[in-house]
Amino acid sequence: MESTFPVVDLSTLNNGDERGSTMELINDACENWGFFELVNHGISHELLDTVEKLTKEHYRKCMEERFKEMVAAKGLAAVQSEVGDIDWESTFYLRHLPTSNMSEIPDLEEDYRKAMKEFAGELEKLAEQLLDLLCENLGLEKGYLKNTFYGSNGPTFGTKVSNYPPCPKPDLIKGLRAHTDAGGLILLFQDDKVSGLQLLKDGQWIDVPPMKHSIVINLGDQLEVITNGKYKSVLHRVIAQTDGNRMSIASFYNPGSDAVIYPAPALVTKESEESQVYPKFVFEDYMKLYAGLKFQAKEPRFEAMKTIESTVKLDPIVTV
């Protein structure tokens, strides 16, 4: 029997009777799926509707024409064989922490900028709440994950705004090729009508169901390292569709660039210490490596970081 995609009602955490089973559901999702979907997460539906409406308008006004030109220039509409080096997506990036670049992005209208700023603030609070729930499930002290992510300037937090327009050859061109996310915790606000996001579980590609006003959470490579493999980052991809334009707003709550990442000592057993599966590294070094290897398996990335680790002695970073 196929188990159903984990959907977590965050409001049940305030209810003594239901809290235990909700925490178990989150733990099971982190161990066995790497993904779960949140409802009643505390972000107002009105704000989500505004963000969706303005994102779709911005795409139509500022991005659609550019995307069509790119497709024409690369001859993508007429491809005959599988395309392995390009994704059928139109994207731009917003950085929120440690410093925001929102004022530098051209063609963002004031109401859109304002909505995205408010949305990012809400997601940041939600990410920190979730990290503490993970700490509770892992038996780590409250704040452990947030502090590990902190580095000297706080976490890195940014948003990738994507649209996946209708694609004439979805069997040959992926919306986004399979990968695991490099960072920490990913919070995704996705289209509730057009699907396309899939994750790999037990050798099968499974759809992440579109649900109105939900936030999809998935775990990045850094949480796999810090939990010493108890929680895993999972391969996922986006399948392009022949009709419908899928909106995807993915926010990445990641460690600061100089944060030192390593398995939490409380989660390292004698055996795993001897076999030392996961490396210790500075987050920025991992990101440099990831940039060229995003669409490849994560294990060689961890191995490469181990090699770097053995040649460089990491000084402990003082955190206040």
Account of the protein in words:
- This protein is of the alpha+beta class and 320 residues long.
- Helices cover 37% and strands 20% of the residues.
- The chain has 8 helices and 13 strands.
- It has helices spanning 16-32, 45-74, 110-138, 144-150, 221-226, 270-275, 283-293, 299-311; strands at residues 7-9, 35-39, 90-97, 156-164, 176-179, 185-190, 197-201, 204-207, 215-219, 236-238, 246-254, 260-261, 281-282.
- Strands 1-2-9-6-11-4-3 form a 7-stranded mixed beta sheet. Strands 5-10-7-8 form a 4-stranded antiparallel beta sheet, with no helix packed on it. The chain has a two-stranded antiparallel sheet with strand order 12-13.
- A hairpin with a 2-residue loop joins strand 7 and strand 8 (204-207).
- Helix 1 crosses helix 3 and helix 2 packs across helix 3.
- The chain is globular and about 55 Å long.
- The termini are far apart.
- The mean pLDDT is 93.
- It holds the Pfam family 2OG-FeII_Oxy.
- Pathway: Alkene biosynthesis; ethylene biosynthesis via S-adenosyl-L-methionine; ethylene from S-adenosyl-L-methionine: step 2/2.
- Residues 155-255 form the Fe2OG dioxygenase domain.
